[in-house]
Design brief:
By secondary structure, the chain is mostly helical. The protein has two domains: 56 residues, Orthogonal Bundle (Arc Repressor Mutant, subunit A), CATH 1.10.10.60; 145 residues. Helix content is 76%, strand content 0%. The chain has eleven helices and no strands. It is elongated, with a radius of gyration of 22 Å. It starts with a helix and ends with a helix.
């Protein structure tokens, strides 16, 4: 044990046994480490040093580096999925109105999603920019697959109600959906300000809403 580790050990040993405080310090240190170095190159030694504990102290809180990363991003992902299901429910609840070409409108999903993303911007920077080597590195692809499945389900429901929805080439549709979902997260990887991101979300809606109408034949 070097001098720095010894001092950290003494400091941890003599401080009040508040596990919540220690846990939060570790998470903050881990977040900073992952944001700077990415998951793959993040160092447990540096995380421990920044948190003011020895490396072995980390394992009282997290089994490994992967668990630390998950603790930082899972709450944001869970909330994002809750919002997604909420918006999905709104679409399916109003199928009759949305199926009419003269008043088909979206649920402002791009704006609502962007608001949520920027309410949890550090977590999404970790997911989008720093997750290589984790189960989260395919997050955008998995989100696109989900969006694709839900949209096909929505189109099927419209057909069942008598609306003449065009048959869409599945390969082309996959590319279009993927492009849309990737675009949603571009402000994260390009370090947009919140104001810039919200403007971009409105631009996305203005661009894609008439495109979906044409694609569906509404």
């Amino acid at each position: 044990m070097n001098v720095r580790e010894h001092c950290s050990f003494l400091w941890e040993k003599n401080m009040p046994k508040d596990k919540t405080e220690s846990h939060n310090r570790i998470l903050e240190a881990a977040k900073n480490e992952f944001l700077e170095y990415g998951f793959a190159d993040a160092s447990l030694r540096r995380i421990a040093s920044q948190a003011g504990i020895i490396v072995s102290g980390l394992y009282k809180h997290f089994a490994n580096k992967e668990e630390m990363f998950a603790a930082l991003v899972d709450p944001a992902i869970d909330g994002f999925m809750d919002l997604y299901r909420e918006i999905e429910g709104e679409y399916f609840d109003e199928l009759d109105r949305f199926g009419k070409s003269d008043n088909w409108t979206g649920q402002s999903e791009s704006v609502r999603a962007m608001e949520y993303i920027f309410d949890h911007i550090d977590a999404f920077k970790l997911i989008i920019c720093c997750s290589g080597g984790t189960k989260y590195e395919d997050f955008i692809h998995e989100a696109a697959i989900l969006e694709e499945k839900v949209t096909f389900k929505y189109m099927k429901e419209l057909r069942s109600k008598g609306y003449k929805i065009k048959n869409v080439n599945k390969k082309e549709f996959h590319l279009l959906i993927t492009a849309y979902v990737e675009a949603m997260f571009e402000p994260v990887s390009h370090d947009f300000t919140r104001k810039e991101a919200m403007h971009f979300a409105k631009t996305l809606e203005a661009f894609y809403e008439p495109a979906w109408k044409v694609l569906f034949g509404l």
